[in-house]
Design brief:
The protein has about 70 residues and is mainly α. The chain has one domain: Orthogonal Bundle (434 Repressor (Amino-terminal Domain)), CATH 1.10.260. The protein is about 50% helix and about 0% strand. The protein contains five helices and no strands. It is globular, with a radius of gyration of 13 Å.
Length: about 70
């Protein structure tokens, strides 16, 4: 599975939040390792987790997971 790049890490750092603190803001909480996996693209967060990341970090899901639109060129 090819997991797209994301901006979780940069948005988290802009907000001045540590990985462990970000994980604890979830209900149920995520471990620091889970947050790290999401940031590095080792695992893809589910829709609920993506929405919570966006809410906590004060941005949109689209800010965290920008889509690259194909330009029609191969």
């Amino acid at each position: 599975m090819n997991i797209p790049n994301n901006n979780i890490s940069s948005k988290r750092k802009e907000a001045g939040v540590k990985q462990a603190d970000l994980g604890r803001a979830f209900d149920p909480p995520l471990s620091q390792v889970a947050v790290s996996y999401h940031e590095r693209g080792k695992r893809l967060p589910d829709v609920y987790q993506a929405l919570v990341y966006a809410q906590i970090l004060g941005c949109t899901v689209e800010d965290l997971f920008p889509l690259s639109v194909p330009d029609g060129k191969n």
